[in-house]
Design a protein that fits this description.
The structure holds two protein chains of two kinds. Chain A is mainly α. Helices cover about 85% and strands about 0% of the residues of chain A. Classes of the chains: A mainly alpha, B mainly alpha.
Chain lengths: ~210, ~190
């Protein structure tokens, strides 16, 4: 039985391409689209919509109320009416312009905040992935620690029980005297072969054979 | 319209894209960069917009506009009077026109500034409402992130505690096995 191979856990070709494409798209976005929002931000700060709208409103007012007319010239309140109407038009235009400007600025901020939210959501996903990896890694380490302890205990237990058995047989804890006797009885059999034979006998006795 | 040459497009072809060795690390880097970019590019803009809810530019502009419109109206009247050779106006009529203009200007000033205040208030309140909406999203997002972080910490804590409990239980198992072995060896 062989252990896991790292090569079996490699990303598939589809995953590699997916990552490549995602990186390329992100780079493209950063290069081409990200500056657009900054451009829009600058425009929303610089452009004077109110001034533009007020200019048009002033032109409309003057075209409507300043047509040469003897009756208008003679009337006492023509100038006052003109000043009042033009003032009202200016306020209206400036107000609409400011509202449009704010709308645009808020739109830019909302988009930027949306992107920022995407960024932090992305970080949360990364944190999740990392946490999951770390948990799995901790779990693996724990499993290995326990396996090592288990093996040590198993070996210790076997050594202890065999040692006790050897003592009972009168051949010392490590069985040196019995081994010497066996070696003397089977001179043509080496120590290693003798040991392997005993292991085979023991396994057969335990039902593994 | 230049649709871009083959040379500039070729770098985006799949075969020419660079490999991504560690997508997880790159993802973290991208999101960190995005957040830093937001701080650099939009945080000052955001601060400026937050201050704009107390803007008085319309009211300030209205004060200036009233004087300008009064001057323009007066100049228009003067040109028309000249155009019609005095238009047969007596001095008393001209004085009356001046007084009416002054009165009208004063009234227009008050009216314009009042209107400007109303309009300014509307714009500022609309901005405030939009900012509040954005802020709700910011808050929701922040809480969601914190919730995720807290959950992850909780998972880690529980996993650690579970592993510890499992380890203790295993150690007790070993202890009892060893104890049994000792008992077998010495007592039986």
């Amino acid at each position: 039985m062989s252990g896991p191979k790292k090569s079996e856990y490699k990303a598939t070709e589809a995953e590699k391409i997916q990552a490549k494409v995602a990186k390329a798209e992100k780079d493209y976005f950063n290069e081409k689209y990200s500056p657009l929002l900054r451009e829009m931000r600058d425009l929303s700060l610089k452009e004077n919509y109110g001034g533009f709208a007020a200019g048009r409103a002033q032109a409309d007012t003057m075209q409507t109320l300043t047509k040469p007319s003897l009756a208008a010239t003679k009337a006492v309140d023509t100038s006052a009416e003109l000043a009042s109407a033009a003032g009202a038009q200016q306020i209206m235009a400036q107000g609409k312009g400011l509202a449009a400007k704010r709308q645009r600025q808020v739109g830019v901020l909302a988009t930027a905040r949306g992107q920022q939210a995407d960024a932090t959501t992305g970080l949360a996903s990364v944190a999740k992935l990392e946490a999951s990896d770390r948990l799995q890694s901790a779990g693996r380490k724990q499993m290995m620690r326990e396996a090592r302890q288990g093996a040590a205990m198993e070996l210790g237990g076997t050594l202890f029980s065999q040692g006790m058995q050897n003592l009972e047989d009168g051949s010392g804890f490590f069985g040196g005297e019995a081994r010497d006797k066996l070696a003397a009885a089977n001179k043509n059999q080496g120590l290693f072969r003798g040991g392997m034979k005993r292991l085979g006998d023991r396994l057969a006795k335990k039902g593994y054979g | 319209m230049d649709l871009g040459g083959a040379a500039s497009m070729s770098r985006y072809l799949i075969g020419n894209l660079s490999d991504v060795d560690d997508p997880q690390d790159l993802y973290a880097q991208m999101t960190r960069d995005d957040y830093d970019q937001y701080l650099k590019d939009f945080r000052p803009f955001e601060e400026q917009l937050l201050k704009a809810r107390n803007d008085t530019s319309l009211i300030d502009q209205a004060r200036k506009d009233v004087q300008t419109q009064s001057r323009i109206a007066s100049e228009v009247a003067a040109r028309n009077t000249e155009r019609y050779g005095g238009a047969g106006l007596s001095n008393a009529q001209r004085q009356q026109q001046q007084r009416t203009l002054q009165r009208g200007t004063s009234l227009a000033a008050v009216g314009s500034i009042n209107n400007a205040r109303v309009m300014q208030r509307e714009v500022n309140q609309a901005t405030l409402a939009d900012l509040i909406n954005i802020g709700q999203g910011v808050n929701r997002n922040a809480l969601s992130q914190m919730n995720t972080a807290a959950n992850l910490q909780s998972q880690r804590y529980n996993a650690y505690k579970n592993a510890k409990a499992q380890h203790s239980s295993q150690m007790m198992g070993f202890g009892s096995q060893l104890g049994s072995a000792l008992l077998t060896a010495f007592l039986i």
